[in-house]
Design goal:
505 residues; alpha+beta; Beta-Lactamase; 4 domains; five-stranded antiparallel beta sheet; 14 helices; 17 strands
Length: 505
């Protein structure tokens, strides 16, 4: 001990015994000369202060020779503090890891230390956590390196700080992608600035994440492409943004395929529309032609003679048929123009309770022998829309329900209302008729599609309903009724006095 210290040996031992790590003293023969109480954890001695001349590797690790990389032996040679890790394998605990420090005792400048102060700490849990973290890092690295999407990081300055192989493929830079991209500043890239991506990156580096679908971008080669881009701010321990994790996927082919499918769908729609127009106009025109020929033939047969009463009646019947079919053509064309012409709809505050009562009064349910069941809540809020367009919507839907129950036993139509939590008024028109097959539910709102007999509908009514409601912020859908029949559900935005115009559905 240092003679200049005021601490006696008993006090020093007391201090060393209270230290929460193992402390022991060895000589150059690796014989243990003294240990503190904490060493009971590693030795089998009942009294650690009487460890005797047993070697440290024997009483601590049950070894027969010095440990590999023993820091004490290194300290003997260097006469300075040395560190080392010792691994011990046990049957119960498995691998245990220890950190050992060897420090030479005080000595004269020209003499070597005879004793060395040793400390030992169990770092098994730390090593296990370190190994687990290493395995996790390797696992994450494998995922990133082999991911089919581009994954990279951008530092606070907007510079690429890491890239994965998929980005090399996406950028078209090949194996030199990392070399060319690392350190490249995306915030200053003219292509990034021009398409608006630089602004998203700048805001993300301030803490605002973003996710862009089918974003139009120009590559470094000037080629246009579409990408899915997600940016997630990476935060440090203090919560400050330190960079940006980015994920990019090329969606160019998906966008092109989608556009092609949309174009094909449009062409298919145009084809069905043309077929519907041809069908709706061909039948009445054929009837007009046939009756015109009959009328002409009748006139030619009675030419030069007085036309009898029966001939006049027959001629009138031909003319009436021609007139009726001509009006049918006119109605078809007018309805078609209504579908294609986007005329402005009026905006009025509508008391729905009064409105639906007026609509139902226009349909004589007693005469058509259909039972009407009204489940309309009193005091419903006002809605905002075009009264004439809404009247046409409800008359169409209710008339369709009446036609659907024709010939049905206990023919019934239900009108139900419900105020939804999303500030929308839901109106359900149900019937117990023949119903609409599921495979036709998606086609029911297309022009000229109808399940009615040829003379009962043109297939444009529900198309107009769908268009009117969409433009007024509402919606309409159809589903099968569990007990047979159909349910048409109409949603209307409730009028908000704090806003003007329509409320978003």
């Amino acid at each position: 001990m240092n003679p200049e210290t005021n601490i006696d040996q008993n006090a020093l031992r007391s201090i060393l015994n209270s230290i929460p790590i193992g402390v022991y003293i060895i000589d150059r023969n690796l014989s243990v000369r003294w240990t503190n109480r904490r060493m009971l954890r590693w030795t089998k001695e009942k009294q650690t202060s009487q460890a005797g001349d047993k070697h440290c590797y024997a009483i601590i690790f049950d070894g027969k020779s010095p440990c590999v990389g023993c820091p004490a032996i290194k300290s003997f040679e260097s006469n300075r503090t040395e560190y080392g890790e010792v691994k011990k394998t046990g049957k119960k605990r498995g691998n245990a890891h220890y950190l050992i420090t060897s420090t030479p005792s005080d000595r004269d400048a020209d003499s070597e230390s005879s004793y060395f102060i040793m400390t030992i700490q169990d770092i098994t849990e730390y090593k296990m956590a370190e190994d687990e973290l290493r395995r996790l890092n390797e696992f994450n690295k494998e995922i990133i390196e082999n991911a089919p999407v581009a994954i990279f990081t951008v530092n606070k300055k907007g510079e690429f700080s890491s890239v994965n192989p998929a980005l090399a493929v996406l950028s078209g830079l090949g194996e030199k992608a990392g070399e060319k991209l690392l350190g490249f500043n995306w915030l200053k890239n003219p292509y990034t600035i021009k398409c608006g991506l630089a602004q998203y990156i700048r805001e993300a580096l301030e803490g605002k994440p973003f996710q862009l679908w089918d974003f139009p971008f120009i590559t470094y080669w000037g080629a246009p492409q579409y990408i899915y881009f997600k940016g997630v701010p990476v935060r440090g321990k203090e919560g400050n943004v330190e960079g940006l994790l980015c994920i990019i996927e090329d969606t160019t082919e998906i966008v092109r395929t989608r556009a092609q499918l949309i174009q094909e769908a449009k062409m298919s729609f145009v084809g069905r529309l043309a077929a519907g127009i041809a069908h709706e106009l061909n039948n009445p025109l054929a009837t007009i032609t046939a009756n015109a020929e009959l009328a002409k033939e009748l006139i030619e047969n009675v030419s030069g003679a007085a036309m009898g009463e029966s001939d006049l009646g027959e001629l009138k019947e031909y003319i009436d048929t021609i007139e009726e079919q001509a009006y049918r053509c006119t109605r078809t064309i007018r309805n078609l123009l209504e579908v294609t012409r986007k005329k402005d709809l009026g905006t009025s505050n509508i008391n729905f309770n009064d409105f639906i009562s007026e609509v139902l009064d226009q349909i004589n349910f007693r005469k058509i022998k259909v039972k009407l069941v009204k489940e309309i809540q009193p005091g419903l809020p006002e809605i905002n829309g075009d009264p004439e367009a809404l009247r046409q919507v409800f008359l169409n839907v209710i008339s369709n329900a009446v036609d659907a129950v024709e010939g049905t036993e206990n023919a019934t139509v239900w009108i139900k209302t419900m105020l939804k939590s999303d500030n929308q008024l839901e109106v359900a028109v149900e019937d117990n008729g023949i119903g609409i097959p599921e495979d036709m539910a998606e086609l029911i709102f297309e022009p000229f599609f109808t399940t009615k007999e040829p003379k009962k509908g043109t297939g444009l009514g529900l198309t107009l309903c769908y268009d009117f409601l969409q433009r007024m912020g509402g919606s309409i859908r159809v589903q099968q009724r569990p007990k047979g029949g159909s349910i048409f559900t109409i949603k209307l935005p409730v009028y908000d006095q704090k806003k003007t115009g329509y409320q978003s559905a």
